[in-house]
Amino acid sequence: SLVNVDWEYVDGSDSDVYLFAYIDTQGKQGALHIDDFNTPREFAMAVNKVIESYDYSVAYWSRGRDSDKVTDLMQWHNFCVKVGAPSIVVPVSDYDHHPTIRSLNNPKHRHIDAYLIHNQTFIKSGVYKGAIGSMHLDDVHLAAFLNRKIGKLPGVSGENVNDQPIEVQKAYCLRDAQLVYELMTKNNGQLLGVMQVIADYISRDIEYVCHARDMGYLVEPVLTEMGYPPQRDPETGKAIHWWDEKYTGGLVQAPIR
Predict the structure, then answer these.
(1) Which parts of 63-165 fold into alpha helices (H)?
(2) How far is the CA of 122 from the CAs of 125, 178, 244, in angstroms?
(3) Distance between CA 56 and CA 254 in Å, rounded?
(4) Is residue 125 within 8 Å of 218, Cβ to Cβ?
(5) pLDDT score, position 96
(6) What is the DSSP string of 3-68?
(7) Is there a contact between 48 and 80 (Cβ–Cβ < 8 Å)?
(8) Do residues 88 and 48 touch, judged by C-beta distance below 8 A?
């Protein structure tokens, strides 16, 4: 079970979250606004309950890396602490120095940052064939669906969404969750299928694979075990990677159901 999520928070704050939206792989969706609840704590508890009901959550730029900006997960952790709700976010994961989700109510839950997957060189080159330019969510979505641009809501952006009516705010947040949903379910979840194949071959958690700083060094042993040793340039001796379009095989994985 997998859910695609997004948060909205007051610009310039590190803990003022007011909106959460989600879409799961079965099509169930919703948006929770802080004003829908009697207290901020009730809002926080309701959001955590939604996330914990799934084994996987996916967001875009939720963990961050090489940036001073406070990420979505840290915003949510700070908010939960401020309102006195249990936090499902651990500020430092057990495999790198960035936040992730660990739930006592669902120990199997793993969180995946779709930004970090799509920013990998071998994904950009091998899967998208160089179509990804900007790493903005709507631009990545356009690279995946060249003939169907969804984009943001007309006239609404991160700079003015806070000033919009609540229903418009919900629609804006839900649109971002929808973009992530479509990226992660394209071709019956092929992208996460590739991540799972790599994880199985190296005996690591799929979350670890999705968030690797350089996924290339994880892919090479997978290809070797599958019978595709890396070719080497006869002049430089450097490996010629399959994602440089000189490799003729490909990963084969069962579709995500």
Answers:
(1) 72-83, 114-118, 121-122, 137-144
(2) 5, 24, 8
(3) 18
(4) no
(5) 86
(6) EEEEEEE-TT-SS-EEEEEEEETTS-EEEEEGGGSSSHHHHHHHHHHHHHTSSEEEESSSS--S--
(7) yes
(8) yes
Q: For 235-248, b where at least 16 C-beta lie within 10 A, e where not — what string? A: eeeeeebbbeeeee
Looking only at the bridges linking them, the beta strands covering 17-24 and 29-33 are: antiparallel
pLDDT per residue as tens digits for the range 70-115? 889 999 999 999 999 999 999 999 888 899 999 999 999 999 999 9
Contact 7, 17 (CB under 8 A): yes
The Cα 100–Cα 196 span in angstroms is: 18
Nearest to 164 by CA among 46, 11, 44, 6: 11
pTM: 0.83
Name the phi and psi angles at 58, rounded to 5. Answer: -130, 135
Token pair 């001796």: residue: 237
